[in-house]
Specification:
There is one protein chain. By secondary structure, the protein is of the alpha+beta class. It has 14 helices and twelve strands. The longest helix has 21 residues. The two termini are 24 Å apart.
């Protein structure tokens, strides 16, 4: 079993990023969190999109080796995930919390054999790397995995028996946004604060533009079914900022649909035909309804294009 397959295990969990906010997972989140997101993985698996996603899951020899060695299959054993961060580029802290089914003893033995450092913290073994940026993983019994920087993982362990310490406004917003949704995200951090960590220079510039600078909070949710429902809300500084932001969003959506006349671009633009954007006081609310079969078509086209562009070695 090679170390890179252990990385596949952790990345697979991260890529799955808890619906209707599980209070037991939320209480493990750091008290200074400003961005929290999640997916109800179990429910998504039962939807048409979930079935489509699982059917596209590539199972190669490396993946099979991972499952055989660990007894862990992310398609079956991941149930719910929460991710959170203070959204402070200077701190670079974040935590990933996965509710699932883990053969902890087996996994610990395997991970330890790969050379990771093991530290016992309040009765919980923490596995961490020995060089570079310090990252850690801990298993709370056989049902919860916590991963992130070492201090965030230790903090989650400390909060196991405590009540949630999230900021009241963030906690309230999570409650409003996550109910009845399969995936959700809530941020009480200004959108412009993400510019410093944006990988693309054009994206960094856009986030620092006047329209996005006015966004002080944001939230969104997705509910899967035969029709995929996407809803979001952006809180601007003032009602005037909200009106301007709504106008910019409508203009950009119109430009996409006007200029995408064929191929994949046209398919993507068609997904926006039911987009609605409204400004209410200092809030901009948007929603779009996408037939699930149309969404599958766009994903298939994107996958085909990516595959065709991948150089053969």
């Amino acid at each position: 079993m090679k170390l890179r397959y252990l990385a596949v295990f952790l990345l697979g969990a991260m890529a799955t990023v808890a619906s209707a906010a599980d209070s037991q997972l939320l209480k493990l989140v750091m008290p200074d969190a400003r961005v929290v997101s999640g997916v109800d993985v179990d429910h998504i698996k039962t939807t048409p999109f979930g079935q489509f996603f699982l059917s596209q899951f590539l199972v190669d020899s490396g993946f099979k080796e991972l499952v055989d060695a660990t007894g862990f299959d992310p398609r079956r054993d991941v149930h719910e995930v929460v991710m959170a961060s203070p959204a402070d580029p200077a701190k670079k802290t974040a935590v990933l919390i996965v509710r699932g089914s883990f053969d902890t003893a087996r996994l610990l033995t395997l991970i330890q054999s790969s050379g990771l450092k093991v530290e016992n913290y309040h009765g919980v073994p923490i596995l961490s790397n020995t060089g570079g940026a310090a990252h850690a993983t801990a298993f709370l019994e056989n049902s919860v995995l916590v991963a992130g920087d070492i201090e965030s993982v230790k903090g989650a362990i400390d909060r196991r028996a405590a009540d949630s310490s999230l900021a009241p406004d963030l906690s309230a917003k999570i409650g409003q946004t996550s109910v009845g949704q399969d995936a959700w995200m809530v941020s009480i951090a200004p959108v412009s604060s993400f510019a410093a960590v944006a990988p693309d220079r054009n994206v960094r510039g856009a986030l620092q533009g006047d329209a996005f600078k006015s966004i002080e909070q944001s939230s969104g949710s997705v509910r899967f079914g035969n029709v995929i429902e996407i809803n979001g809300e952006l809180i601007a500084r003032t009602p005037a900022d909200a009106t301007s932001l709504a106008d910019v969003m409508k203009f950009l959506a119109g430009m996409v649909q006007m200029n995408a006349t064929s191929g994949q671009a046209a398919q993507f633009a068609a997904l926006l035909r039911n987009l609605t954007v409204t400004a209410q006081s200092n809030a901009v609310k948007f929603s779009v309804m996408i037939p699930e079969v149309d969404f599958e078509t766009v994903l298939r086209l994107a996958s085909t294009r990516t595959t065709s562009r991948t150089p053969k070695i």
